[in-house]
Design a protein that fits this description.
The protein is an alpha/beta fold. It has 10 helices and 13 strands. Helix 2 runs parallel beside helix 4. The longest helix is centred in the N-terminal third of the chain and has 21 residues, at 87-107. The structure holds uridine-5'-diphosphate. The site of uridine-5'-diphosphate has 14 residues, from helix 6 and strand 8.
Length: 327
């Protein structure tokens, strides 16, 4: 059985992916410092090391004790607004953290790595078209820039040390497990779907929609929303691809469907059959008008297709929040 080390495996995307990897026959070791992740999110079938990947000595211990075949590096900081406030922390976590991981991989001759990157590397460059992997990157905040730096760091390290990699640029990830036992555990989420559901459930008073004057069909921003379970399954297929000996590559992971923020608010009302209290306010700084994926490459090379709809995403997050609140 192949043994995968998942850094950040207690986080939202990491923990769903750990479960999916185990369900598909991989064994998994999780490394997470629990700074934003939660131990309760880690699948009980995985082995867990509580440590910070920027601490190279502690991180190396895993490779002394476990036989690791490949690494999925999800650990990192992911909040755009926070990255504007704390750029040094973002470079430290996302660039120095990855550099430490790569140094250890080189030392222990681990030759396969998957890396979580982001569609925000495209900045405003996919305004009037879907982003392909060839769309020029134009990061507009430290979060996106540190993720792009990570992509390049992996590329050059892999070329020099004979490693292979798969990098995913995630679009807007949302949703929860279908049995409502795992979902986004962040206390004060900044994302639209969790915020809309929190408002429906009475945890927030009103949903603020940021900006109604964008050059889009209804004036609100367009995004491409992907279910966390579809994303988790993509990681399994990416891992299979690496173990088949396929060449290094980078893929967009989205659904190629764009929804405006107003459409999200309306969909939340339709799916939950409840009235959502929402108002339009000023734009939020740094929001591109439209971010939409072209996923031809991942469809043809990994044979991956998203299975879940926007309604599935909204309903699973809603059920997860209801379930969490009733515990
Ligand atoms: N958004 C909003 N109200 C919220 C949260 C988000 O209007 O409470 C908007 C945001 O301005 C953007 C879209 O919803 O246009 C998606 O934002 P989110 O934070 O979910 O993801 P992002 O695309 O920023 O990664």
């Amino acid at each position: 059985m192949k043994n995968i080390l998942v850094t950040g495996g207690a986080g939202y995307i990491g923990s769903h992916t750990v479960t999916e990897l185990i369900d598909h026959g991989y064994s998994v070791v999780v490394a997470d410092d629990l700074s934003t992740g939660s131990e309760a999110a880690i699948d009980s079938r995985a082995k867990f090391y509580k440590l910070d990947v920027t601490n190279q000595e502690a991180f190396s211990q895993i490779f002394e004790q476990e036989s690791i075949d490949a690494v999925l590096h999800c650990a990192g900081k992911i909040i755009v607004s926070e990255s504007m406030e704390k750029p040094l922390e973002y470079y430290d976590a996302n660039v120095t953290g990855l550099k430490n991981v790569l140094e250890v991989l080189v030392k222990y001759k681990i030759d396969k790595i998957m890396f979580s990157s982001t569609a925000s590397v495209y900045g405003n460059n996919c305004f009037d078209r879907k982003a392909t992997e060839e769309t020029p990157v134009a990061p507009v905040n430290p979060y996106a820039e540190t993720k792009y730096a990570g992509e390049r760091l992996i590329h050059w390290t892999a070329s020099r040390f004979n490693m292979r990699y798969v990098i995913f640029r995630y679009f807007n990830v949302a949703g929860a497990s279908l049995d409502s036992t795992n979902g986004l555990r962040v206390k004060n989420p900044t994302h639209i779907i969790p915020n809309a559901n929190k408002t429906i459930l009475g945890e927030n008073h009103v949903l603020q929609i940021f900006g109604q004057d964008y050059d889009t069909k209804d004036g609100t921003c367009i995004r491409d929303y992907i279910h966390v379970l579809d994303l988790a399954r993509a990681h399994v297929m990416g891992m299979d691809y690496l173990f088949e000996g396929q060449p290094s590559d980078l893929f967009n992971i989205g659904t190629e469907k764009g929804y405006s923020v107003t459409e999200i608010a309306q969909a939340v009302e339709r799916v939950t059959k409840r009235k959502l209290n929402y108002i339009y306010v000023d734009r939020r700084e740094g929001d591109p008008a439209s971010v939409l994926a072209d996923c031809s490459k991942v469809r043809s090379k990994l044979k991956w297709e998203p299975k879940y709809s926007l309604d599935d995403i909204i309903l699973s997050d809603y059920n997860w929040r209801k379930n969490k609140n009733s515990i």
